[in-house]
Automatic annotation (TrEMBL):
<dbReference type="GO" id="GO:0005886">
    <property type="term" value="C:plasma membrane"/>
</dbReference>
<keyword id="KW-0268">Exocytosis</keyword>
<protein>
    <submittedName>
        <fullName>Exocyst complex component 6</fullName>
    </submittedName>
</protein>
<dbReference type="InterPro" id="IPR007225">
    <property type="entry name" value="EXOC6/Sec15"/>
</dbReference>
<dbReference type="GO" id="GO:0006886">
    <property type="term" value="P:intracellular protein transport"/>
</dbReference>
<dbReference type="GO" id="GO:0000145">
    <property type="term" value="C:exocyst"/>
</dbReference>
<dbReference type="GO" id="GO:0090522">
    <property type="term" value="P:vesicle tethering involved in exocytosis"/>
</dbReference>
<comment type="similarity">
    <text>Belongs to the SEC15 family.</text>
</comment>
<dbReference type="InterPro" id="IPR046361">
    <property type="entry name" value="EXOC6/Sec15_C"/>
</dbReference>
<feature type="domain" description="Exocyst complex subunit EXOC6/Sec15 C-terminal">
    <location>
        <begin position="380"/>
        <end position="691"/>
    </location>
</feature>
<keyword id="KW-0813">Transport</keyword>
<dbReference type="InterPro" id="IPR042044">
    <property type="entry name" value="EXOC6PINT-1/Sec15/Tip20_C_dom2"/>
</dbReference>
<dbReference type="Pfam" id="PF20651">
    <property type="entry name" value="EXOC6_Sec15_N"/>
</dbReference>
<dbReference type="Pfam" id="PF04091">
    <property type="entry name" value="Sec15_C"/>
</dbReference>
<feature type="domain" description="Exocyst complex component EXOC6/Sec15 N-terminal">
    <location>
        <begin position="17"/>
        <end position="186"/>
    </location>
</feature>
<dbReference type="GO" id="GO:0006893">
    <property type="term" value="P:Golgi to plasma membrane transport"/>
</dbReference>
<dbReference type="InterPro" id="IPR048359">
    <property type="entry name" value="EXOC6_Sec15_N"/>
</dbReference>
Amino acid sequence: RSVYDDQPNAHQRFMEKLDACIRNHDREIEKMCNFHHQGFVDAITELLKVRADAEKLKVQVTDTNRRLQDAGKEVIAQTEEIIRCRVQQRNITTVVEKLQLCLPVLEMYGKLKEQMSVKRYYSALKTMELLENQYLPRVSQYRFCQIMIENLPKLREEIKEISMSDLKDFLESIRKHSDRIGETAMKQAQQQKTFSTTLQKQNNVSYGRNMHLGRSRVLESKNEMTLKRTFEEDDEHEEEVLTAQDLVDFSPVYRCLHIYSVLGDGEIFENYYRKQRRKQARLVLQPQSSMHETVEGYRRYFSQIVGFFVVEDHILHVTQGLVTRTYTDELWNMALSKIIAVLRTHSSYCSDPDLVLELKNLIVVFADTLQGYGFPVNRLFDLLFEIRDQYNETLLKKWSGLFRDIFEVDNYSPIPVANEEEYKIVISKFPFQDPELDKQSFPKKLPMSQSVPQIYIQVKEFIYASLKFSESLHRSSTEIDDMLRKSTNLLLTRTLSSCLQNLIKKPHIGLTELVQIIINTTHLELACKYLEDFISNITNISQVTVHTARLYGLSTFKDARHAAEGEIYTKLNQKIDEFIQIADYDWTMSESDGRASGYLMDLINFLRSTFQVFTHLPGKVAQTACMSACQHLSTSLMQILLDSELKQISMGAIQQFNLDVIQCELFASSEPVPGFQGDTLQLAFIDLRQVRHSLLVF
């Protein structure tokens, strides 16, 4: 440190000490060498002695080594062969182990290819999953494994494309077969309903007996035919109960759903399926333009819709989440609105009541079928009430034609009956009762004409036709009774009344026909109570019920009679005017002919014969007609006498006119229509008598 600290003379002193230390070490080394030198010399001497022996040993060792090498060459060769075999054995063992590890992978991949070839795509996806999760990770270091790993996504896409193609084929298939599916479902629902109705009737004997009086006449033959047809079909297909699954292979949609679910694209598949089905629903709900022309058009339309929703209901119950109840309800509500709009439009074109009735039956079967699958159909039954009004309108138009045809062919004369059998035939058709007529012997005549029983029968047929529409509407007997009475009232007050009014106004209807029309309407009015009983028997609703409507036949036939009476008065006056027009008075004649004018005698004879026909009319009507005719005759003669063109009258003309007036008074006093009091009818000519008297005095 002193050297580094640069003390004075420190370096010199250090060097001196260092030299002293070196000299001490040299002396120690020298001492040691001196001590060992003899030993070294001895060793060298020993080595020199051994040198010769070492050379001999070297020669011997070399020779031994040569001979050993020559002897070991075969051993080495055998050893190398053993080593090579052991390496091969080890390699074989390694290969076997690796193959045992790879074989399951290859077997699974082969299984995958086989599943793809036989279109077992869902199983193929499961195999892919096993390959990826269990097998391929064990052999991921091999190149073929990488190729497999690269191919698996492609296979998945291929499976998706194939399954989607199968789904599209499935959607096309159900679109084509939806009408057949729906037709089968509707047929089964109708058969089930018919069978249930039959059982209900068998279990309710009293109800059946009450209904037998009316309704069974309409329904019995129809039900028998329906049951016969149903049972024949059941016998023919006893063991075959077709369902949607029998008609359509649903495996593509199941397979596609499972595939997309496994691939994690279940939501994509659900959205695609629902979108496509909505499109198909719009196509199914689109009717043909000529659908309203035939019942087959409506049947095909309903069958397609039923088939569509039967498939959706099947998908709803056999799959989880593909369609939901909310989705089907939403789709049904959309479809129901469209269906109602379509039916309202197309049914308005139907003018045939039979077609409207067929449409109603189809709607009922359609509603019952879908109701059986859990869809609400109340709006359809509400629509049926709208169609019922239209059905009634078509019935009214049809019956209007029937009434016109009956009136056209009627002879407007009393019905002749030659014997008891003919009388019973008429009575079986029309409820006629007349004790006085029953006492008369055959042959005899009933007061009404042939049109009366025919009209009565047609009114009953109309009630039957109205009843047909009321069936299967799930309405109470009271409501059906009310519907029948309202529709019958419309028939009486509008259709029949209009036909009667038009008939009365026709120019070819004469006085005799008008008289017969009045008689006919009187008997039809009396028959209204039997029509009410008829409706009550059909519906099993007593007439004493508070809410039971009454038939308005009284006002209908009363109005028709009033119109006929007015027409009688008018035609009588017209006929009188025709006779007056042929009157040809010679106002300058010197003396009268001594008898009444020929035209007046013809007129009086006509009036006598006409009033004889009035014997079957109510007395007031006949009296009013007679009074009206006499007054009109008096007025017409007065107008002839007071004609402004008449300038002068001779005494002979006055006497001739006086004879005509006297003849009129004689006719009035002869009481052509019974029931007048005193000289009431003669008062019609009182003004004419005064004028005649004045002329004679003048």
